[in-house]
Amino acid sequence: MNYNFKFGALWRYQDEIVQGLLLTLQLSAVTMVCGLVIGLGVALAAGSPRRMLSAPARVYVETIRNTPLLVQLFIVYFGLPSIGIKLDALTAALIALSVNMGAYSAEILRAGFESVRRSQVEAARSLGLTAGQAFRHVVLFQAMKAIYPALASQFVLMMLATSVVSSIGVAELFHQASFIDSRTYRSFEAYALITLSYLALTLVFRSLFSGVYWAVFVRRPRR
Amino acid sequence: MPLVEMRDVRKSFGSVEVLKGVSLSLEKGEIVAVIGRSGSGKSTLLRCINALETVQSGKIVVDGIDVTAPGADLNLLRQRAGMVFQSYNLFPHLSVERNVTLALKLVRRMDQAAARRVAEQVVTKVGLADKLQAYPDELSGGQQQRVAIARSLAMQPALMLFDEITSALDPELVGEVLRVLEEVAREGMTMMLVTHEMNFAKNVADRVIFMHEGRVHEDGPARETLAAPRTTELGAFLSAVLH
Amino acid sequence: MIREFSPADVVYLIAAARWTVLLALTAMVGGGLLGLLVAVLRIIPLRPVNWLAIGYVNLIQGTPLLGQLFVFFFGLPLFGLSVEAWTAAALSLSIYASAFFGEIWRGSLQSVSPRQWEAGAALGLTYPQRLFYVILPQAVRISVPPTVGFLVQLVKNTSLTALIGFVELTRASQIITGATFAPLPVYLTAAVIYFAICFSLSQLSRRLERGLHAAR
């Protein structure tokens, strides 16, 4: 092999990389918030005894979880305009990502609340707590503890998956690789560098999340 | 007026009728042991009194509160009737102290300092004053169950219900929990216990109720009833558990 | 020339889906073999080797598959290897799968209680006997549902290879869209085909998991 790796040539593009990085972070944050809101609504609907609510919720979760994000993205961005819904690339990306994240968080939330045993609610109720108090002071914390790790790893998976929106031209981090490639013709170096910057993001978020987990759920306040 | 009054209570789970018309009454200060085979309906009986189960028909009145009436104040009922469970059901995310003070603050509207004083007092009573700041998973099963009793005592209920509270414990830990129960009994608390501890039933309870196939099969003074069962079913049950 | 989206296009899409399936199967086999190695390297009592395996898993699970695809697509030719999209796709999906399989199987192995090792030893079984007759049968049963579950991810992720130009279901959809200008029916058809494959696998995984709990 007599190829000379030249990563040095890429440093000129650090501004583009930083901008892409910021957009990736924004995409991830907005997707997380919207996905959680959708997920909470869907989880509540799916658990409802009324089929009018639970059936569509289940169909939504199954449909999203059993089709590729990329195809979902193409349907939103390329497909919807033919029925008169024209979206710019960023909006289409946010919608596709949030709808996708919604289905996964619905499953995580449902499983988390189911993991809190019924006996905990009974114990709280038998002490005279109202249903609302039992939920807030007994169920919620335990459910959050069960939900948090799954949600944290789902966040990382989603953050990595935002890279696919580069395919419709959203100038997030991954998109910068093709930009740098087109300027330098250093394809391998460009993609390797960008791919590794995601690793840095992943590691930062993982340690952040486990720090928060420790502080909130493991550390025990003693007076 | 009796503290607990049940009239012809029926309870089914799906197609299985677990309580087939149970009537009984409990006076203030009485200590009643409920015994019977598993599946005889004894735990369900207890859970109906605390409205953890809703009954299909019949009437239950506890401390003047009609449990079975629509719109009954169940939160008030549950303040009057404390309950301790087989699986302790301590709140794993709260320290011993906060397990006890949670309901005092939320239900009794006590301030932090007053709730804390009550917690110290009841936890000391069950012999765990040094464990106030411990968390449930740092305690043995027996200690957890004593905390659960303290948590219920703290609410100063008129009646306490105990649902097989020693059944999940290792044999060597049963004694410490029973001693706490005896202590509570000595102070005049009205108690209803579902139990497999026949010696405890004989020595501490005033009265024994034998449940059989969803009905009260025998009901009488503890010592006499256990020493000389009137029905063959109770006789058979006693010889099965004692041998 | 623009033409209508016709039943012939649906047939074309279904035919293209065989490449999706073939790619997923290749990655399953390749990733399975590599994943076995990863699982073994993760659990053998040799610290540096463990760290190496952990580093590998973190690298693969910490970067986007899309990035891995492009790195292989542009990197392989530098080593004088084929520039075909298929090679890059099959290789990077296998590597991607190996990290996940490795973790799933390690988890399954470690979820068998250590007391089972002791029980085997107490009966006088040798180490390999304990492994093959006591531990592995239990671990395999535990690992089957999540393994099948991951295959769903794998099938869905084959769609990313469209972006390096490998003609599977998603790339075929892009091609037909170019000819018909009917993106909505085309991508919806593709979604239905993906759904048919993935939903069957999801249901299979769920049924296996229920069977596992029922058998206990």
Features:
heterotrimer; A: 223 residues; mainly alpha; MetI-like fold; 8 helices; 76% helix; C: 216 residues; 81% helix; flat
Describe the protein in words.
The complex is a heterotrimer of chains A (223), B (243) and C (216). Helices cover 76% and strands 0% of the residues of chain A. With 223 residues, chain A is mainly α. Chain A has one domain (14-218): MetI-like (MetI-like fold, Orthogonal Bundle). The mean pLDDT of chain A is 93. Chain B has 243 residues and is of the alpha/beta class. In chain B, 38% of the residues lie in helices and 25% in strands. Chain B contains 9 helices and 10 strands. Chain B has a 6-stranded mixed β-sheet, with helices on both faces. In chain B, strands 2-1-4-5 form a 4-stranded antiparallel β-sheet, covered by helices on one side. The longest helix of chain B is centred in the last third of the chain and has 16 residues, at 171-186. Chain C is mainly alpha-helical and 216 residues long. Chain C has 8 helices and no strands.
Question: Mind sketching the topology for me?
Answer:
The complex is a heterotrimer of chains A (223), B (243) and C (216).
Chain A: H1 14-46, H2 51-65, H3 69-79, H4 89-115, H5 118-126, H6 131-161, H7 173-184, H8 187-218
Helix pairs in contact in A: 1-2, 1-4, 1-7, 2-4, 3-4, 4-6, 5-6, 6-8, 7-8
Chain B: E1 4-13, E2 16-26, E3 31-35, H1 42-49, E4 57-62, E5 65-66, H2 74-80, E6 81-84, H3 96-106, H4 112-125, H5 141-153, E7 159-163, H6 171-186, E8 190-194, H7 198-204, E9 207-212, E10 215-221, H8 222-227, H9 232-242
Parallel strand pairs in B: 3-8, 3-9, 6-7, 7-8
Antiparallel strand pairs in B: 1-2, 1-4, 4-5, 9-10
Helix pairs in contact in B: 3-4, 3-5, 4-5, 5-6
Chain C: H1 7-43, H2 47-61, H3 65-75, H4 85-111, H5 114-122, H6 127-157, H7 169-180, H8 183-214
